[in-house]
Design goal:
Layout: H1 7-16, E1 34-43, H2 45-54, H3 65-70, H4 80-95, E2 101-109, E3 119-132, E4 139-150, E5 156-167, H5 185-190, E6 197-199, H6 206-216, E7 221-226, E8 231-232, H7 235-244, H8 255-258, H9 270-282, E9 287-298, E10 307-318, E11 329-339, E12 345-356
Parallel strand pairs: 6-7
Antiparallel strand pairs: 1-3, 2-5, 2-9, 3-4, 4-5, 7-10, 8-10, 9-12, 10-11, 11-12
Helix pairs in contact: 2-7
Bound molecules: ligand LRN75BOA.
Ligand LRN75BOA is lined by residues 88, 92, 96, 101-104, 133-136, 141, 163-164, 178, 249, 251, 267, 269-270, 297-301.
């Protein structure tokens, strides 16, 4: 009788076997397709705390009941970053497990009431568009609108539009026009076009941001600063956090396959990089409530051993809030840039958040 575990026999068996593949190719997506994702998870307090602690997000309203009550929550709620990461994680099996790159995301919003531990998450996606990549014939570019819903009430808890490069079954011929070098000739000749002065807010309250923007106004200045903290990527951030959101992307946990990829190693889940940078930024402000995120991009890979730092630019401040009373908070729009130990940007995006007033 054949011993299938004999190494030579087994090597031959592997060679003869077809692989039962996971994930979808670019050709499997068509504009308008609706996908109800089978996976789901319960948004739990330990899950929330695991995500928030490893990404250095320490806002007490998400940890302590008295601080939650003070902010108007019934109990410490699920943080929008963990909700966003869990919503995306659940989609990976259907949308991006085949591989490719998470290019960007925009219009990240949280339309419902605060989300509390015990909520069961159900997720659906719609194909918004498909496009040829002119620079990479082996990939196509797909954009989806994804909604994370309360499985019991069907309320939308988190919604966003996300774009990935997805491998094609068959590469196509392209004109290569997308492979042009970046950066203008003027920029190369004159150096970067930056303001002469960077203004730093005196504190983290709404009034501090307003004051800093006023100090920078009508001058060659910007309100921009870096945050001191950094977080070196390790097994927990690279592999454990994405797996805890049911994210099956091989990029984060299969060293064997990733050894042959452009990064040569497993890489950090984009939402971990982003939450870490946002955690650094939030540690220097008095956040009241997250409103939304736009124009998010992932510029290069982050891998184990890399350290994620953050840089913030304050774009505008408005003395109003979308819900509740504006005597407690005002709205600030930021640009956050995550960068690595070599000062290379790895993530950027704009964020709108309500920031507590000093008088509160
Ligand atoms: C979740 C999850 C996976 C992950 O979390 S993976 C970790 C996060 N993502 C990354 O680490 C990606 C890091 N980025 C890169 O390594 C490079 O940016 C990348 C993706 C290799 C692209 O580099 P290029 O220099 O080739 O970049 P281009 O600017 O030329 O873009 C290539 C084409 O893509 C189009 N494109 C770029 N961004 C967007 C966007 N936001 N929306 C739409 N299209 C975009 C761009 O126009 C280029 O198109 P061509 O026609 O010229 O090819 C998971 O599983 O999802």
């Amino acid at each position: 009788m054949t011993d299938w575990t004999d190494p030579d026999t087994f090597a031959q068996a592997l060679e003869n076997a077809d692989t039962r593949e996971k994930g979808n190719y670019f050709e499997d997506f068509a504009e308008g397709d609706l996908l109800a994702h089978d996976l789901g998870l319960t948004l739990s307090r330990p899950g929330n705390e695991g995500w928030m602690s490893q990404t250095l997000n320490h806002d007490p309203a998400y940890w302590r009941t008295d601080a939650a009550h003070e902010r108007g929550f019934d109990e410490p709620p699920i943080h929008p970053d963990y909700l966003t990461a869990a919503t995306l994680g659940i989609t990976v099996e259907d949308l991006s497990e085949k591989g490719g790159y998470f290019l960007g995301r925009t219009d990240v919003r949280f339309p419902g009431a605060p989300v509390y531990p015990g909520t069961e998450l159900r997720v659906e996606s719609e194909v918004v568009s498909t496009a040829t990549s002119s620079s990479r014939p082996e990939y196509g570019i797909v954009t989806w609108r994804t909604r994370g819903k309360d499985a019991q009430t069907d309320d939308v808890l988190c919604s966003y539009e996300r774009t990935n490069m997805i491998p094609r079954r068959e590469p196509v011929a392209t004109d290569g026009s997308g492979a042009a070098a970046s950066g203008s000739e003027d920029e190369a000749a004159d150096g970067p076009d930056l303001p002469a002065e960077f203004v730093v807010p005196d504190g983290g309250y709404f009034e501090d941001f307003v004051d800093a923007l006023e100090r920078a106004a009508d001058r060659d200045a910007a309100v921009a600063y870096r945050h001191e903290r950094g977080r070196t990527q390790d097994d927990v951030t690279v592999a454990a956090l994405p797996l805890a959101t049911l994210n099956t992307a091989k990029q984060h946990h299969n060293v064997d396959v990733m050894a042959d990829s452009p990064s040569g190693d497993i890489v950090t889940y984009g939402d971990v990089t982003r939450s870490t940078a946002l955690g650094h930024a939030r540690s220097d402000e008095r956040t009241w409530r997250e409103v939304g995120f736009d124009d998010e991009q992932f510029h290069t890979f982050v891998a184990a051993g890399d350290t994620v730092y953050a840089f913030t630019r304050v774009l505008e401040a408005e003395d109003e809030v979308s819900r509740g009373a504006s005597d407690r908070a005002g709205t600030v729009r930021f640009e956050h840039i995550a960068f690595n130990q070599d000062d290379e940007p790895v993530y950027s995006g704009t964020r709108t958040a309500e920031i507590r007033k000093r008088s509160d």
